[in-house]
Design a protein that fits this description.
The complex is a heterodimer of chains A (330) and B (238). Chain A has 330 residues and is mainly alpha-helical. Chain A contains 17 helices and no strands. In chain A, helix 7 packs antiparallel against helix 8, helix 10 crosses helix 15 and helix 15 runs antiparallel to helix 17. Chain B has a 5-stranded mixed beta barrel with strand order 2-3-4-6-5. The chains are: A mainly alpha (330), B alpha/beta (238). Chains A and B meet through helix 2, helix 4, helix 11 and helix 14 of A and helix 1, helix 2, helix 3, helix 4 and helix 5 of B.
Chain lengths: 330, 238
């Protein structure tokens, strides 16, 4: 099982084919050496401003991302899924809100939530309950709330609105699923992880994986947010941001497309000064609940028939919930 | 992305964060209190990278049963989005992004920073007795706008900011205020009259008197008696 053809061919071609890491090193060194020649060409105020905003978002968010991923790693190695399942009540109607609140205690990046939900279902947890947990864990955990508080200093109203809107989204989707989605086919691919081969190795591996995965999407979100602030003409931004409905829809779409980790999306939201607080709230509530990354993972895990119903349901619920709490609390 | 490349990426990112935080360069992007979180984060990333490469059993990818291999593969396989993480390090290296300046201040003139309750309270206290009294640009703005400039009348004040211009040939003493990081920076401007405009983006120390009546609705103005070119302060954002 272990010897593969690629092993054999890579030994043959080792003299000619460079390793991936060598290519990376070469590129980095080339950039380093040509730095002095490149810098004058890159000295343009718009590019400099974009770079500053871009780097600022990334630098600000990374410590929170690392914190969140470490915490999630600790919890996933310490807490087995069996224990999790024992905590879930029998009656689904009660299980849904319990799962929603449980998300508070269990920080998990979005990347982990789909496999976790899938293995919960595989072990007999009702789908509605597992899906509620899938929606709430990335969105209402303490790390996310802390980073939201840091991104919006002196605005406890935004932090609480985000918490409540996300929680309500998770619970409402769970209840709706319980009530109306009985016949929707869900594939069962996952039968749960086997024994772990040494907790430290699994821990380091999962933390690195989660961090790199999330950091990539953070960079993408930061690039787009910085470009909005630097390159898009002010008149366009003010025009879009000025109309309540258009602003909300724009940021909901932005959140879906940009697929940022929930620990970091508050910092991007805070950078969008032109938009109203409600629109920013929509961005922060939609992001952890549904984005391209989650949609494709869910389609892959549970099947397209599931995704076609689940994705729109979550998007609409998230937007409405965020608008409602934004209007009420902020 | 192979395992070794992941380790390189983690180390590079950690090293860049450490480098930014050990000096004062990080102040161009984030608040002062972020220094130690950034240092801790940089160290953690580097340790993670070491653990990734040399931790117990990390190299043995030829374990017996399928489940092990699945798990290792699952963890070693990172989505291609992770490659993007090279970009911030490269940008810091190549562009060395400067603190925000006139380009953004001139773009964002429609934004007005709402002062916090604390800032408003501080603005109501009388200025210190020194002549000229040192005042921050934001404070000057708040006093002119929210207090009808009562505390500013007839007082000679001293401000430090950078020069930004507008389409009508006016120049302004400008400062950015940030809440969270440079991404949410809002500029505050005070129009300077009575002196020739220094070069755009130049940091200046300006001494002058508040132009009575200005700033209650729009941008306050200062009648300048003295302009001095200075170095940018260590913490550029207010």
């Amino acid at each position: 099982m272990t010897e593969t053809t690629s092993d054999v061919s890579s030994t043959d071609q080792r003299a000619r084919r460079p390793e991936q890491v060598e290519v990376v090193f070469l590129i980095l060194m080339a950039l380093g050496i040509s730095q002095r020649w490149l810098i004058p060409h890159l000295d343009h105020p718009a590019l400099a401003t974009w770079s500053t905003i871009f780097v600022a978002i990334v630098v600000q968010a990374i410590p929170f991302l690392v914190g969140g991923v470490l915490l999630a790693g600790v919890i996933s190695t310490v807490l087995s899924e069996k224990a999790l399942r024992r905590l879930v009540p029998e009656r689904v109607a009660i299980g849904v809100p319990v799962a929603g609140v449980a998300g508070f205690a269990l920080p998990g990046c979005e990347c982990a939530s789909v496999p976790v939900a899938s293995s919960m279902i595989g072990r007999g947890v009702a789908p509605a309950v597992a899906l509620t947990f899938l929606l709430s864990a990335p969105a209402v955990n303490p790390v996310v709330l802390v980073s939201t508080a840091v991104a919006f200093p002196g605005r406890p109203d935004i932090v609480s609105a985000r918490f409540l809107a996300s929680l309500v989204t998770a619970v409402v989707v769970g209840w709706l699923w319980m009530r109306f989605a009985g016949k929707v086919p869900m594939l069962q691919r996952h039968t749960g992880h086997g024994a772990r081969t040494g907790t430290f190795r699994a821990f380091v591996a999962s933390v690195s994986h989660d961090f790199l995965h999330a950091a990539g999407f953070l960079v993408l979100g930061a690039m787009v947010a910085a470009a909005i602030n630097t390159f898009v003409p002010r008149s366009v931004i003010d025009g879009v941001a000025g109309q309540a409905v258009v602003a909300v829809i724009t940021l909901a779409v932005f959140a879906f497309v940009v697929a940022m980790c929930s620990e970091a999306d508050a910092f991007v939201a805070a950078s969008l000064n032109a938009f109203s607080d409600t629109a920013k709230l929509v961005f922060m509530v939609v992001g952890p609940a549904m984005d391209v990354k989650l949609a494709s993972m869910e389609a892959g895990e549970f099947g397209t028939a599931f995704a076609l119903r689940f994705v729109p349901l979550v998007m609409v619920t998230a937007v409405l919930s965020a608008c409602a709490f934004g209007w009420w609390l902020v | 992305m192979k395992s070794t490349t992941q380790a390189v990426l983690l180390t590079l990112t950690g090293a860049v964060l450490l480098r930014l935080a050990m000096g004062d360069v990080y102040l161009r992007y984030v608040n002062t209190w972020m220094r130690w979180p950034l240092v801790a984060c940089g160290v953690i990333l580097i340790l993670l990278s070491i653990g990734h490469l040399w931790g117990p059993g990390a190299q043995s990818e030829e374990d017996g049963d399928c489940e092990d291999e699945d798990e290792v593969e699952q963890h070693a396989h990172v989505s291609s989005a992770a490659w993007l993480l090279f970009l911030p390090s490269i940008v810091v290296f190549l562009v060395a992004p400067p603190a925000l300046g006139a380009y953004l201040a001139e773009r964002n003139t429609s934004l007005v920073a709402e002062p916090t309750a604390g800032e408003r309270k501080a603005a109501l206290t009388p200025l210190p007795a020194t002549d000229p009294a040192p005042v921050s640009v934001t404070e000057f703005f708040v006093r002119a706008r929210y207090d009808q400039g009562l505390t500013l009348v007839g007082r000679s004040v001293e401000m430090v900011g950078f020069v930004s211009l507008d389409g009508d040939g006016n120049w302004y003493v400008t400062r950015f205020g940030i809440n969270c990081c440079a991404a949410d920076a809002t500029p505050t401007r005070v129009r300077a009259i009575g002196a020739e405009a220094p070069p755009r983006d130049q940091w200046v120390r300006v001494v002058g008197v508040w132009v009575e009546g200005s700033g209650t609705k729009g941008v306050p103005a200062i009648d300048v008696s003295e302009v001095e070119h200075v170095q940018a302060p260590r913490v550029e954002y207010e």
